């Protein structure tokens, strides 16, 4: 496989670069290849192709109505929660990128992503849909970006109209929470499941701006199992689509190799040795220790500890170099 040989790294000495930093860099460089290798023998995460086609059609219809598109991603996995066809679907609409769940990543991660997207000229806002952080800035940006729409209308002799913004993103990334925050209301009608026709309503959002009250859902990428595993770990897809024990085992392998967590932190929490190669053995031991041998429950405990930040706030992606 693509396992990392730390001892090899230690033999060379790089001036001014700590071994920890090197190990971490090497971890991130190898993570996607490792995930590909680890997921190959597993039951793939199941998407329903029928749903995907319908979701895509609905999304494209919704996008046609928007002048400004607010694309929401999970800050822990900004790449796995992106769709390669998004820019094509956008056409010449303006886009603002929201990295939501900013509370679930470290300041270093946040800075790294801010630099990465700034270099690409992408407008990025970090937000917390639960607490509402970032939404003021988002509102201001949407307004600023949208002002061009009426300049064009005036040039064509048309009357100005409110500019229309809409929120899109993968399931569960926090779209409804952000709509609620922007519209300062408690409830947003739950996003309907793909294929169910819904009424689209515009809600006034500040002066001259309207927000579509139901979010657009991005279709899953059917063949990308590396992205799927990350979505599963981050609880961005339903548990019925994957095997909890498999996903938990992969998380153990990731955590034990990550220098900022490592097998020491796993041992401290569960009193079980992890070796970074076989998360399944770790899960089975935890199952025997705490859950009468039920490995799904054991895996769920580890996933849930990760999601609650018990090992620190750990992103599963770093910007590519
Ligand atoms: N910690 C944290 N949790 C968040 C944040 N934003 C949303 N959540 C939580 O994430 C879960 C999903 O949020 P929703 O707003 O329902 O996500 P959605 O994208 O509308 O989901 P779908 O309706 O499935 O498409 C909820 O439990 C929210 O409370 C955030 O910034 N930080």
TrEMBL record:
It is found in: Mitochondrion inner membrane. It comes from the Eukaryota. Keywords: GTP-binding, Mitochondrion, Nucleotide-binding, Signal. GTP binds at residues 100-103, 172-177, 216. It holds the Pfam family MMR_HSR1. One of its GO terms (molecular function) is GTP binding. SUPFAM superfamilies: P-loop containing nucleoside triphosphate hydrolases (SSF52540). Its main location: mitochondrion. The keyword Transcription regulation does not apply. InterPro entries: GTP-bd, GTP-bd_ortho_bundle_sf, GTP-bd_ribosome_bgen, GTPase_MTG1, P-loop_NTPase. It is a peripheral membrane protein. GO terms for cellular component: mitochondrial inner membrane. Residues 165-219 form the G domain. One of its GO terms (biological process) is mitochondrial translation. Belongs to the TRAFAC class YlqF/YawG GTPase family. MTG1 subfamily. NCBIfam families: GTPase_YlqF. This is Mitochondrial GTPase 1. It comes from Asparagus officinalis (Garden asparagus).
